[in-house]
Amino acid sequence: NPRQDRLTLSVVMEIDGRGEVVDYEIFPSVIRTVERMTYTAVRRILVEDDPEAKARYAHLVDTFREMETLCLTLRRRRLARGAIDFSIPEAKVVVDDEGRPVDIRRVERSIAEQIIEEFMLITNETVATHFHHLGVPFIYRVHETPDEEKIAALQDLLRTLGYGIKGFPRVHPGALQEVLDQVAGKSEERLVNTVMLRSMKQARYAPTMLGHFGLASPNYTHFTSPIRRYPDLFIHRIIREVVTTGGLRSAAALQEMLPAVARQASERERVAMEAEREAVDAKKLAFMQNKVGEVYPGIISGVTAFGLFVELENTVEGLITLTNLTDDYYLYEDKAYRLVGYRTGKVYRLGDPVTVRVIRVSPEDRQIEFAPA
Q1: How many angstroms separate the CA atoms of 265 and 205, rounded?
Q2: Termini Cα distance of the chain
Q3: What is the overall mean pLDDT for the chain?
Q4: What is the pLDDT of residue 190?
Q5: What pLDDT is stored for residue 48 in this prediction?
Q6: What percent of the chain has pLDDT over 70?
Q7: pLDDT value of residue 361
Q8: Whole-angstrom Cα distance, residue 61 to residue 67?
Q9: C-beta atoms surrounding 100 within 10 Å
Q10: What angle do CA 159, 163, 168 make, to 5 degrees?
Q11: HEC profile for the chain?
Q12: Quick count: other Cβ atoms within 10 Å of Cβ 59?
């Protein structure tokens, strides 16, 4: 609802041409939005140069152009310090009025999504740095350095492909991003992205600032979604008290609460993400129910001792069991992420393209079964 007064906490930053925050202020405020914008409308203005959209939002076009410039500046700065930028496909399920899925599309991230993403990242970093220096009780978003064994396994795989992690066995996120840049657009891109992502630790909430490996940031928190995430709401309460009174009345009690709050937030986040994933998977199963017999191109997204997981272009994933690989007896090579035919030497490797036929869809088993086409 635009053009209505809203109470909020604002972080007003002055950022120079290199993307460095040179001054900032954090304070309670009243905001009044000018328009209710959507990613689609902003994409039409900035990417498609759509005359109709530009006319409709003529009073904001220059602002969006400036936001685009700042976004790209912040992104360059983030990547230059070594942040990892994984390319992870997301699905959008389109449903009818009855809630039945009528289409599933791969979501493409445009400059519109990137603007919000980069602005949120710099805001979260600024808030984390400020309150870490104040030394008040706080919840941080942390992402620790990967385990040595997993990075060693990744390095072994990369060497078989002709790549390597610079500085190994020491690992810096920038060295991993360099590998991602090298494989971009190549046949092994999916394989390397998937294995590297699996070698990462899971981000979590913590009462101490342990840094964020993936963002190559020493200070990070979640501040920007207090209506959606409890950790954001928790620190909003702390921030509001600190900036309005200059201190905390119950600092000792808050400090004692923090480990339990961070642990609970991390656990519930994982449950919520799993619930979201299951809900989307249920819609995908419903969408594919009348697609038995259809043939689709896909990418091998997982290799196991019992078969191959294949992801279609629309992100729907199904399984080719070993019993459906009827042309040979296949051996599983776990370290190489592949199945190899005993007689023919035929190889199915993570990231390889494959054409499949849908042979079974079972909502009860939550499974879609494919066979090679």
Answers
A1: 7
A2: 50
A3: 93
A4: 80
A5: 95
A6: 100
A7: 95
A8: 10
A9: 10
A10: 75
A11: CCCCEEEEEEEEEEECCCCCEEEEEEEEEEEECCCCCCHHHHHHHHCCCCHHHHHHCCCCHHHHHHHHHHHHHHHHHHHHCCCCCCCCCEEEEEECCCCCEEEEEEECCCHHHHHHHHHHHHHHHHHHHHHHHHCCCCCEEEECCCCHHHHHHHHHHHHHHCCCCCCCCCCCHHHHHHHHHHHCCCCCHHHHHHHHHHHCCCCEEECCCCCECCCCECCCCCCCCCCCCHHHHHHHHHHHHHHHHCCCCCHHHHHHHHHHHHHHHHHHHHHHHHHHHHHHHHHHHHHHHHHCCCEEEEEEEEEECCEEEEEECCCCEEEEEHHHCCCCCEEEEHHHCEEEECCCCCEEECCCEEEEEEEEEECCCCEEEEEEC
A12: 9
Give the model's pLDDT for residue 195. 87
- Res. 89: pLDDT tops 80: no
Residue 259 burial (CB count, 10 A): 14
Amino acid identity, position 140: Y
Rounded alpha-carbon distances, angstroms, from residue 52 to 48, 56, 64: 11, 6, 16
Q: By percentage, how much of the chain surpasses pLDDT 90?
A: 82
Q: How far apart are CA 2 and CA 291, in angstroms?
A: 43
Q: Does 360 score more than 90 pLDDT?
A: yes
Count of C-beta atoms within a 10 Å radius of residue 351: 21
Distances (CA, A) of 202 to 91, 120, 278, 295: 21, 20, 19, 36
For the four alpha carbons of 322, 325, 329 and 332, in that order, the dihedral sign comes to negative
Q: Is residue 352 scored above 80 in pLDDT?
A: yes
Q: What is the b/e burial string over 261-285, where b = at least 16 CB atoms within 10 angstroms of the residue's CB?
A: bbeebbeebeeeeeeeeeebbebbb
Please tell me the predicted confidence (pLDDT) of residue 239. Answer: 96
Conformation bin of residue 102: beta by default, left when phi > 0, alpha when psi is -120 to 50: alpha
Q: How confident is the model at residue 50 (pLDDT cuts 50, 70, 90)?
A: very high
What pLDDT, on the 0 to 100 scale, is given for residue 106?
84
- Residue 154: CB atoms within 10 Å: 22
Span 238-255, average pLDDT:
92
Q: What pLDDT does residue 7 have?
A: 94
